[in-house]
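Fold this complex.
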Amino acid sequence: MGHTLHDIKTALIDLDIPGVEDGVRRALAEGIGPVAVLEEGLIAGMNGIGEQFKEGEIFMPELLVAAKAMQAGTAILKPLLTGAGHRSRGTVVIGTIQGDLHDIGKNLVAMMLEGAGFSIVDLGVDVSPEAFAAAVEDHRPQVVGLSCLLTSTMPQLPATLQRLAAYRPQLKIVIGGAPVTQAYAERIGADGYAPNAAAAVDRVRALTTGD
Amino acid sequence: MESRERVIMALSHREPDRVPIDFGGTTFTTIQVDAYEALKGRLGIATATTIVNQRAQLVAVEEAVKERFRADVDGIGLNPPAPRTPAANHPPGAVTDEWGARWLVGVRGEHVATDPPLGKAQSVAEVEAHPWPDPADPARYAGLREKALALRTGSKRAVALALGCQMASLARNIRGYEQWCTDFILQPAIAQALMRRLLDHHLALAERALAAVGDLVDVVTVSDDLATQEGPMISPAAYRKFVKPLQQELFGFLRARTPAKLFYHCCGAASFFIEDLIEAGMDILNPVQVSARNMAPEELKRRYGSRVTFWGGVDTQQLLPYGTPAEVAEGVKRLIDVMAPGGGFVLGTVHNVRPEVPPENLEALFDTAWTHGRYR
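Structure:
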């Protein structure tokens, strides 16, 4: 049993998409539950990928292919997971702030969080504080993630925090993006900051533990 | 000492009379229109502004402003390519460029590539079949030599020719950022074919441009973003397999056709690539994004200072937009103290000045560059 799950994890770390799909099907055929396949095969593999990325051993192409492998595996599991009563680790609403159209960083964070077992509501780019608030009302997330590339649009970060004040401190808000720093995040009162998509997973996990 | 001699000495790793200053001499050291209008208001300059890049809302820095800030570099470039009819499946509200890439345009010069035309391609044949622009279009080179001669005789500044020649950046716009990334692993033939096709275009373009003005310019600028705030976009192995050979070919081609120094622009944490770029034939690195990882000026100067000219260096993520004028002045002094010794340094902003930069900070920047930039 452990062998097949280990194969899935290894295939994902090796960026072997057919290997992941094959491993997932084999595991299910062997009678391994879909939750175990997800947690000990796929999520465990994405954890390994996250560690390599933080260590500077792999880069964006590897991250993106790993996410594809993860998605290929979860596509097979999805119908079975609902049946098994599986719940995600939490819901994260994510978006690029108003005035900013860049999304590659946000997309990487969303993929890595999905790879860690979170449910993602991706609002896209140029998202107003009002739109973030509406999404919080609709989806009741544990965490909101704000992404920002341009220095020009940075004032939208405190503006969005302000707009979401009524939901805090229960709602956690993490921020990131090229011009954002830890010091800046602390200064504006965000709950967390991460310099890259893998570290973002650590941050969100830390903020949602014990929920 | 005249501007041109000052710049040429610095690029030859000798100390001129002062640190050369670039404001408005390249497509990476200019300014967004709102910031420019605020600056001109403060300087009491009332002439009409010309926007030279519509998508990014960037201006041509005028003579009066260059004189006020004692800028040492003038720039020339090719005439814009023929406008392109958008394809039938063009997304609404987007602008198409000569490559067929589509752009969403926001406010104040914000723009991103969207809906890439080769985003769904599955084969090299589709890459080849893409309607590529024509590098031989004579309209692009009309008046180029005349412009260069006019600057040579009428301007005291060094002359920089903008050639662009992006391969990775354009490939991302045409293929899509995420597909460009995954191609290195999942579709390497497409990664190869796309950037090779772009290189072929650039070689044809550069051949004509340098035949026209290669003997008249002091600097040739090319560009390709390969790094993020944190590090390389792709692995060093992928870079050396897919990108570096193309850069070597490009740089060698350019160097064979002009004695001008080769200026290469790469945003972000570019230090990972510097040894490879030196090997490929780069003379000048721009913009020197000091706020990115492993880009501290002290370390850059120590490791590469005798082999690379650093062009840029004044931080635009924190210092220039959010510092006080006194803090800007202090930052510029520290940058000069580290980067200036031995020449090999041209001072400028890290990329184009954005709308939120207050004009008094620009004054502090360039006035300090002048007063603190004397070699003793």
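The longest strand of chain B covers residues 158-164.
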